[in-house]
Amino acid sequence: MAVTYLGEDAGGRSAQNNKGTRTYTRVFKLETSSESDDAYDVGSNASLPLIGSTHPGDAGAWCVSLRVENNNPWKGWQVTAEYSTERELNTNPTSDPAKITWETEQFQRPAIQDRDGNAITTSAGELFATPAQMDDSRRVVTVSKNLAVVPTWILDYQDAINSDTFTVDGVSIAVGKAKMQRVSVGAEEERNGTVFRVVTFQMHLQRDGWALSLLDAGWIVKNAIDPTKRERAIVDDGTDPSVGILLDGNGRPLQNPSPSTAVFRTFNIYKQRAFSSLPLT
To answer: Is the pLDDT of residue 72 over 90?
Structure first.
């Protein structure tokens, strides 16, 4: 049993450009020596194009399908190869470019600071008993990439923020603006003998970064004489405040409090990792 490659049928070539997507057709002739040879034997001939190989005349088009037909009872065969620029499909699936999408997710958070960075307080400089809620939208970038194995960084990047400036989909992301939010790993797949898994991860982007900024306020203050001691805050009439009072950043009541003099304390709560080393392309 043998399959003989007879060459390409020059008369079977065609091409089309549909709204910028280029497609091509090539036809190949083969011959079998036994009636028991089937379409799999013919389609597996080493002289035929591989799925994912590039078109000889257009490096931007890839072979996306092979159609095998017996066109002369048991002996004569025709294989039609289809090419397209619509989706890159490499011989090695891990060489496929990453697929990247952008969207927005909506959250809510307490409104304790206005757009100019001032605290939101009453006209007397006190906290509102129940802070209003404000929208907290985030840009969400989802990246899907074919990888040979489950990535070793899958746990190390849990809830991590970027320690470096990196680029995703042509957009530069500054230090501390991105946070790893979600990672999923698909089941094993195989293409052209190469086993791979589709790894998808989401990054949430915050314009103001991921450091935690909290208004310095509360019911407990440091003792004016001995700062190592704590005591209950009191207001001018000697009673406990109904809500927490503004503090000065050093544990003492803020004198003449106002939105512009309120103190915010910043805490870095997420570990940092280099995002430029992630599979983003």
So the answer is: no
